[in-house]
């Protein structure tokens, strides 16, 4: 008789179980994303806790109805039913969250797969094109030596071609070797000096060579590349 008064007390004896279930749920939500399997495991743990709490509630209801049915605990029963319904709604919401996380992980995996396929390591090297000016051919990048024939045009027919050739050969650069030369008539008594050279394109560029030769403004009018061959 001394313990029958507890039947009429509105005390939530299993509250700590719901608190643990809620804590585990938010720990799973706020923890590092480790894939859909981890979310499913967390959801399963919460569902088991809810089912265990529901079973304990039903046992408590069965015990209270047997010991104090005459007292009419209808209010307590209604409150417990409301709480169970609330837990079921929360369960459905949790399932929706898990499904959303699964879809988000699937989308991320698909995007990562696309990014990996489009990375530079998986793409073939595209051919590079270079814009060239008229009467000039620019050599492609290559560490091997290449031979070039340059046309150095003088200003008039009174230009000392020997002095012109001496000026051109005075250009000394690392990776540059001068070869044979000859005078080619242009017209009206004007001739141009055609001289061969071997250059290593990772050390000497044709633009650099042209800039050095055109510094002799008294003898050189223009510099053109007549031919270019890779060795």
UniProtKB/TrEMBL annotation:
Residues 155-231 form the Translation elongation factor EF1B beta/delta subunit guanine nucleotide exchange domain. Residues 117-157 are annotated as: Disordered. Belongs to the EF-1-beta/EF-1-delta family. GO terms for molecular function: guanyl-nucleotide exchange factor activity; translation elongation factor activity. InterPro entries: eEF-1beta-like_sf, EF1B_bsu/dsu, EF1B_bsu/dsu_GNE, Transl_elong_EF1B/ribsomal_bS6, Transl_elong_EF1B_B/D_CS. Keywords: Elongation factor, Protein biosynthesis. It holds the Pfam family EF1_GNE. This is Elongation factor 1-delta. It comes from Rousettus aegyptiacus. GO terms for cellular component: cytosol; eukaryotic translation elongation factor 1 complex. It comes from the Eukaryota.
